[in-house]
Amino acid sequence: MMYFYRIALAAMAATAPLLSNAEPAYPSKPVKIVIGYAPGGSADTVARLLANRLSIQMGQSFVVENRPGAASSIAASGVARSPADGYTLFLGSNANAINATLYKKLSFDIQKDFTPIALVTSFPNVMVVNPALPVKTVGEFIAYAKSHPDGVNYGSSGIGSSTHLAAEMFKSMAGIKMEHVQYKGSAPALTDLMAGQVQVMFDNAPSVLPFIRSGKLRALAVTSGQPQAFAPQVPTVSSSALPGYEVKSWYGLFAPANAPPAVVNALNQQVNVALQEASVRSNLAALGASPEGGTPEAMRKHLGQEVTKWAAVIRSSGATAE
Prior knowledge:
The structure is a single chain. The protein is of the alpha/beta class and 322 residues long. The protein has 2 domains: 31-123 and 248-317, 3-Layer(aba) Sandwich (D-Maltodextrin-Binding Protein, domain 2), CATH 3.40.190.150; 124-240, 3-Layer(aba) Sandwich (D-Maltodextrin-Binding Protein, domain 2), CATH 3.40.190. The protein has helices spanning 2-21, 42-58, 73-80, 94-102, 138-147, 162-174, 186-195, 205-213, 237-240, 261-274, 278-286, 296-317, and strands at 31-35, 62-66, 88-93, 114-129, 153-156, 179-182, 200-204, 218-222, 248-256, 290-291. Strands 1, 2, 3, 4, 5, 6, 7, 8, 9 and 10 form a 10-stranded mixed beta sheet that branches. Helix 6 (162-174) links the parallel strand 5 and strand 6. Helix 4 crosses helix 12.
């Protein structure tokens, strides 16, 4: 008996250092999801939906931290310099793909300084006009713009935003002239659109849906490749008049570069599970958004395609943030 007791003690002594040095299971403490926008917008809503589900699924708190400014570049810069341990994450977006070309002196590279985890959600922009404008289709709008070469102004939430570049892409493909009127956000731009100060806007679906439903704005088309469930009667720009035109806004989850593969894989798996949960899908649908998901590799490919696509539009339009 003493012999077996001594063997047991020896075994415990031999494994003690391994046990004490073993890494705790991830996550062993709260995780931050940093977003580059103020509370209340679509980014904040998506981040909180995701954080809530990950907290439930992974048994640890996921908290959202808002760091608005510079089209989310301030938030991205901070996360890029954070420890690559999976405890500080970034909810990036198409804005970051745009900023890669729009800004000449960013302190980070969205493709090199981050590890993609998963594409979370996407939603189209919607081409909307004031109901007093005498057009009901994209084709009629293009004809109107050609017959009024100095009479069409489009509003945007700022240079380099998807609302700006979606209009620039449309203008280029349609061969029309439109003047850009820049606002400090979608809300004042939409106010002027409803007042008739500008004639058209290509805004994110979550921003314009309430005004479309109330009749204060007329939707001519969605900018996605396919019609959307939130407005199945509204055609796409591509099918209406400009084949190949497609603009979708999106949110994706990232960690700093060189995050541990086991952590990235665990988060990817749980994000995909969260996006199948009924309440998440219904809340996203209310925003006019679609759940995405997929692998980290798919997210990396998507990001690269978006950077390339918007670089071409930015160079063609001459847009710059500096």
